[in-house]
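Journal club prep, shared notes

We agreed each person brings one worked example of a sequence with its structure written out as tokens. Mine is Ornithine cyclodeaminase. I'm keeping it raw so we can talk through how to read the token line rather than staring at a rendered picture. Sequence first:
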Amino acid sequence: MLKHTNRKQETVRRVRTLFLSAESVAEIINRKGIAECIAGVAAYIEEDFLRWNDFDKCARVANHSDVGVIELMPVADARTYAFKYVNGHPANHRYNLPTVMAFGVLADVETGTPDLVSELTLTTAIRTAAMSAVAARALARPDSKTMALIGNGAQSEFQALAFHHLLGIETFHLFDIDANTTDKLVANLTRLGLKTRRFSDTRKAVKGCDIVTTVTADKTNATILTPDMIEPGMHINGVGGDCPGKTELHADVLRQGPVFCEFEPQSRIEGDMQQMPADFPVTELWQVLSGEKVGRSYADQVTIYDSVGFALEDYSALRYMRDVAAELKMTETISLIPTLANPKNLFGFIADHRDAQGPVLAAVALAA
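Then the structure, token by token:
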């Protein structure tokens, strides 16, 4: 009882919320190094997936429009609640905006106090790449050296770096229908010392590759990969299909090997497996990581990771960024919750700040 009382007293005193802006997260990445950040988030994800049953989980809440989707992604354990606000608008480049924009929160379950508010656009790019690498380490052949990247947009550099640093991928085969986007990726990866080869279509790009990552943005039922492109031993990392009506893999690709996902109830609605019947077999990745289920059974087996992104990964990424910010002594805060001498006198907070709220109180007085 004393432990809880002390914690509540501490929460009352701590009414300011740690804030990590986009600039702050960029500073963290630059100070720690992007390879270390990806590896750190991957380690936090594995740690949290290994205690999968500790979490209260649900599929994300999505509001769809003709041009995109806006989603809320919640998850919680007994101590911490997290959520992410995220959009997906493939045509945002017309407005010089990212296709995906996000922010997130960590809050104290005991009191509901928001402990952290953070950007999640940059962090989501890192966590998505880290999650891909976590899955591939469990599912791909351990001697994999070549990966095809189909879709060379904002996520592609992060995927390449994750697979290079965490799996030892040496060469990247690149294709995008937008040649300028591939130019961008080639320039960035070359500057980082990574080997690239660009191709004129998907079929040529995936030929001979150990791993194929699809990370396209269009909100459509596409068939980026068809069964005749799949070779024995390939690991398919399907990242771009992440909402109803958006797929990247031909249905018969999913029949070529075991399919793995994050949270099955969400993945059946949003992933490439939305094309499959309700009894189509699938394994949640945490079961492989914990040793409850088998991942790859033999070298020539095709494995498919149908990734849609799950709230637990954002929980892990937010925890990592919070911990690194503390390590680097980054302490910017914002005031989201009023400090109240009497928690039943919320109106009194306005009176205590009448210099700023004078016109409001004056209007109330005049009305009286």
